[in-house]
Known about the structure:
Structural class: mainly beta
CATH topology: Immunoglobulin-like
Oligomer: single chain
Strand order of the largest sheet: 7-13-12-9-10
Strand content: 35-45%
Number of helices: 2
Radius of gyration: 23 Å
Helix content: under 10%
CATH superfamily: Cupredoxins -  blue copper proteins
Number of strands: 19
CATH class: Mainly Beta
Distance between the termini: 68 Å
Order of helices and strands: HEHEEEEEEEEEEEEEEEEEE
Amino acid sequence: MIAKRTSTTAIAVAAFLAAGITWQAAAADSGTIQGKVTIKGAAAKEIQIDMNADPKCASMHNEPVFTQRILVNDKGEIKDAFVWIKEGISKPYDPPATPVVLNQEGCIYKPRVFGIQVGQELQIKNSDSTLHNVHAMPTVNREFNLAQPVQGMVTTKKFSKAEVCLKFKCDVHPWMFAYAGVVPHPFFAVSAADGTYKIGGLPAGEYTVEIWHNKLGTQELKVKVGDGECKTADFALEAK
């Protein structure tokens, strides 16, 4: 009976090989978690920003500029939500050599929400021909408050501890805000204009995925993913 089974298996394998079909194990660190972020209910309307206090800021815009507290489209899909693996990553990851750039352009922080690894270089740039003041307001990292009076000026900083999310403001222009998700690994994303996000390259494991929004709070989901698997984790945040 054993010999017959072995023979049958060998024939099946030979048939697959003859047809050009091969088996290949999924590569390690190839899991993916992806999903969409939406809002439940109606978001408050954004308010037009009055930039007349600094005529240079006002002159940089031909159209009205509005606050960006909750960026949501007509389908209820949320942009600029920070999604990261809060629990389940067991090994250390060195920070990338490539810096993250936080630009001040048109008297607006760009990007408004971003991720950065602990120890990764952050380059803060002033692209405007006006004074900006970069005031980082962390809860666990070291606070800094610096002026950038010259166009093209770049200041470099690093954060030594994980913190989701760390707030930046400009003390000169009170409408300017940005938020950084400082994490100890590369497994994070910021939701796109259609609310979608994707975190790839994950080792097989069980994870706590957290979403953070500056106005709508946080939410967590438990997700188990294997090598080569893609799991969906959608978030729906209550309007406030």
